[in-house]
Write a structure and sequence with these properties.
With 717 residues, the chain is an alpha+beta fold. It has 4 domains: 22-119, Sufe protein. Chain: A (Alpha-Beta Complex), CATH 3.90.1010; 121-218, Sufe protein. Chain: A (Alpha-Beta Complex), CATH 3.90.1010.20; 232-356 and 378-494 and 655-716, FAD/NAD(P)-binding domain, CATH 3.50.50.60; 512-650, Succinate dehydrogenase/fumarate reductase flavoprotein, catalytic domain (Flavocytochrome C3, Chain A, domain 1). The protein is built from 18 helices and 26 strands. The strands form 7 sheets. Strands 15-9-8-19-26-25 form a 6-stranded mixed beta sheet, with helices on both faces. Strands 20, 21, 22, 23 and 24 form a 5-stranded antiparallel beta sheet that branches. Strand 2 and strand 3 form a beta hairpin. Helix 8 packs across helix 9 and helix 9 (316-335) crosses helix 18. It is globular. It starts with a helix and ends with a helix.
């Protein structure tokens, strides 16, 4: 009996031992920046043998490095003490938090796992040259890494299609820093996060090729950036320009033309600001009188009837000044050696209702004029609407510096300096090189809009809180805030610049995006969240910036189309069918309009009423609501029916400081603040009507930047 009991006990122990050796899988989630990040961990014999991110909604490009490298480092080092991936801290922390939860489920010693693993330190590399490719902001980036047996010898970017000036700065900073500190665990370059993340992820790939997961972990140890200098410095100038985008560089060069000594401050590590990523051209007017009439009454296919709101939006004096000075500013560029291509009458035509002198109204049609900065560099693919905008800024900065101008990069203006009379006599700034007090006779604020600051959006344009604005991280409303602190007036009705939406987004988180939907037939019907038609389906950029605002959710509209109209475009129908087959949550197809309305969460009666009214307009051949062209008015009476949720894209802000027609900043009483000027998105509210007008962001920055520079130099003299 004792032998039998002993035998049974042995068998039981063997079974338990075998079970303990079996691999077990555990799953847990933690919140990342885009929602839950779910990981799956495999544990065998008390060791973590695999860790994988199985689902997430993180931003592609930025999160890639964390998703690839954090799990590998955990497994290779048998540790949860892994440094976050630069530029993807939130995603990194989510992966590690979920991994910790899995380890707790597995009964592992979490406290011991929280100590850095020793296996990361001792690695051997296979000497050679390795390459890897990752997707950056809007192109693939190929990196080449040369290693010795135990070190990174060199890093180089060999192929890319990113915006030249922004990416070149990032490449220079990153490649030098990686070799210097022997780690790719460094900070991304401000204003070039997608590009930087792609480079760092590609280097990580190369290190894994050279020495496996342990090498990738060892050469990915977090290295903090060097602290900025705290040395106090005092500078002198006639004019200080804050910001180096289109408005800033025009202000600086124009001030130099007026004989001023100029200092330019730029918050980012590179010059050019958001302007160099512009997707459009420069609006000017061959027929100034007609252009002013149009701009004062336009509604961009959004609002029917007269749109002149007592000159508040827009300000007639500012509109007239812009139209008057737009072409002379282009000629000024040409005098600086810039090549300009003119395309009169080439802008998208706008129908609008204008008021005649006798008080009656009539429908007008305006076809604007567009200029483009000609391409001067084809060293690689350039995707900017300025068509050489990066080389334009190179040329203007070289001119500025050749004339004695001083450019301080990575230097953010903090506050304005005023004298006892309230006049602006300088600016305080903090930068990589120290803390600056700059005495000047005039200051020009060209520091960009407020699209990168949720706090500023909540203050200046609260209807747009939570929207995605593809601007630069430097555009946090600094110039507006500084001027407000000394009593400057601010436009109360701010809004965002919009390019509408797209059924099939083409630009994967790119600032360089189409202003129109290139695939959806104009015979479709667009409705808002309530099922109402509020815009022409032929709308150009800008209309949706106030038409499709949804305060409690991300701004969107619905594209509604039936089988017959969808099938008229083979390309659109093919893409539509593919999206439905893939289960894209934005796409719906139903046999009945009632079921489609249910999918859209819109009352059927509201959608049916809108469609019936629209079909009536189609049959009469005239869109008396929003002036859609007769060729696009094709009735939709039979299904099947399709609905597509199209999110609105934003790329800038409108509002900012109140100025006169020469860029001088005004106080609450409407009086000039001596020594203070502003241009660009710091002060563009007076130029626009109910929505953004294409070609005016670049044009407005150039015109009012130049005028502000001229006036500031004159005042300084």
């Amino acid at each position: 009996m004792k032998k039998l009991t002993a035998l049974l006990l042995c068998l039981t122990l063997l079974a338990l031992s075998a079970t303990a050796c079996l691999a077990e899988t555990y799953t847990a989630s933690a919140d990342g920046i885009g929602g839950p990040v779910t990981v799956e961990m495999t544990v065998e014999a008390g060791k973590i043998t695999a860790l994988t991110v199985v689902s997430h909604n993180e931003t592609a490009g930025i999160s890639d490095g964390a998703i690839e490298r954090i799990p590998a480092a955990v497994v290779s080092g048998q540790t949860l003490a892994v440094d976050a991936v630069a530029g993807a801290t939130v995603t990194s922390d989510a992966i590690l938090a979920a991994a910790k939860a899995c380890a707790e489920q597995a009964g592992l010693d979490v406290q011991a796992l929280s100590v850095a693993g020793a296996q990361q330190a001792d690695v051997q590399l296979t000497p050679g040259t390795y390459t890897a490719t990752r997707h950056g902001h809007h192109s693939d980036i190929t990196v080449e890494v040369k290693v010795t047996q135990d070190a990174i010898e060199s890093v180089a970017v060999t192929k890319h299609g990113e915006t030249t000036n922004i990416s070149d700065t990032a490449y220079a900073i990153l490649t030098e820093r990686i070799v210097e500190v022997q780690s790719y665990g460094i900070d991304t370059v401000a204003g070039a996060t997608f590009t930087s993340s792609a480079v760092l992820n590609a280097v990580a790939d190369c290190m894994e090729q050279a020495g496996g997961a342990q090498a990738a972990a060892a050469f990915g140890v977090r290295v903090e950036s060097e602290p900025w200098s705290t040395e106090e410095k005092t500078l002198e100038a006639d004019v200080v320009v804050v910001g180096s985008g289109m408005a800033g560089i025009c202000a600086a060069v124009a001030a130099q033309d007026g004989g001023a000594k100029v200092i330019m401050l730029e918050k980012l590590p590179y010059y050019g600001g958001i302007s160099q990523t512009a997707g459009g051209g420069y609006f000017y007017a061959e027929n100034p009188e007609e252009a002013v009439t149009y701009e004062m009454n336009r509604y961009n296919g959004t609002r029917k009837g007269e749109a002149d709101m007592a000159s508040a939006y827009p300000n007639r004096a500012i509109v007239e000044q812009y139209i008057r000075e737009a072409k002379p500013t282009l000629e000024w560029f040409e005098s600086k050696g810039m090549a300009i291509s003119y395309y009169p009458g080439s802008n998208v035509g706008y129908t609008y209702e204008k008021r005649l002198e006798d008080g009656t109204r009539e429908t007008g049609f305006y076809n604007g004029d567009i200029a483009i900065f000609s391409v001067s560099d084809q060293s690689h693919e350039i995707s900017v609407g300025l068509s050489g905008g990066d080389t334009f800024f190179d040329a203007m900065i070289k001119r500025f510096q050749a004339n004695g101008g001083e450019l301080y990069l990575e230097t953010a203006a903090q506050s304005l300096i005023t004298d006892e009379t309230g006049a602006v006599v300088g600016v305080k700034a903090t930068g990589k090189g120290g803390r600056y007090t700059i005495h000047a006779k005039s200051v020009i604020l060209c520091a960009g809009g407020f699209g990168a600051s949720e706090e500023a959006i909540a203050e200046y344009a609260p209807a747009y809180v939570g929207e995605y604005n593809v601007t630069l991280p430097s555009n946090t409303g600094d110039g507006i805030r500084m001027a407000q602190e000394i009593g400057a007036a601010v436009h109360e009705g701010g809004f965002m610049m919009s390019s509408g939406g797209q059924a099939f987004p083409q630009n994967d988180a790119s600032m360089l995006h189409s202003y129109m939907d290139p695939f959806t037939p104009t015979t479709a019907l667009y409705v808002n969240a309530n099922g109402q038609r509020v815009i022409s389906e032929e709308f150009y950029c800008g209309g949706s910036s106030q038409t499709f605002v949804n305060p409690d959710s991300r701004d969107y509209y619905w594209i509604v189309i039936n089988e017959a109209n969808a099938s008229a475009s083979e390309v659109f129908k093919t893409m539509l069918d593919a999206a439905l087959a893939q289960g894209d949550a934005r796409f719906f197809k139903e046999d009945s309009l009632a079921k489609l309305a249910n999918d859209m969460k819109i009352p059927y009666t509201a959608l049916a009423y809108t469609l019936n009214h629209y079909n009536t307009l189609c049959k009469q051949g005239e869109d008396t609501d929003f002036y859609k062209s007769a060729a696009s008015l094709v009735a939709m009476e039979e299904g099947p029916w399709y609905a597509i949720k199209a999110y609105v894209n934003y790329f800038g802000t409108v509002g900012g400081l109140v100025t006169d027609e020469n860029g001088a900043v005004l106080n609450e009483a409407g009086e000039r603040i001596p020594g203070l000027y502003a241009a660009g998105e710091n002060a563009n509210g007076g130029l626009f009507n109910l929505s953004y007008i294409g070609g005016h962001a670049i044009g407005g920055g150039a015109v009012f930047g130049r005028l502000a520079g001229e006036q500031a130099a004159l005042e300084a003299r």
